[in-house]
Fold this sequence. Notes:
Elements lengths: L4 H7 L3 H21 L4 E10 L5 E10 L11 E4 L5 E6 L14 E2 L5 E2 L1
Antiparallel strand pairs: 1-2, 3-4, 5-6
Amino acid sequence: MRECKISNLLGQLHADELNELDRQVAEVVRAVETTGTKGEITLKISLKKNGSNSTLVSQKTTTKVPRPAPSDRVLFFAYDDMGQPTGDLSENPPRQEPLPLERPRVMQGGKGQN
């Protein structure tokens, strides 16, 4: 089997750069598994001639870590006592009377009782 030149080049990067690349790969993999959506890792290797017999090698990594979509929430327009809009939002529908619900009482031991 012939030698893989890209593996050789990557192996010559500094340990800190390789550790950071490992960390970024793990972050993207975890996010892809969690969200089920696409992530990306881009490794850019730049080469620049440095004199007659050497080259400068630099690398840059960018990632696109998928994020969970924010959940939607229903809020209602708020009205004053005269039925005029207040410019606020409320969790309660404007024309619905509050329901006579009791909160469960917490007993010793942390279990609720109706």
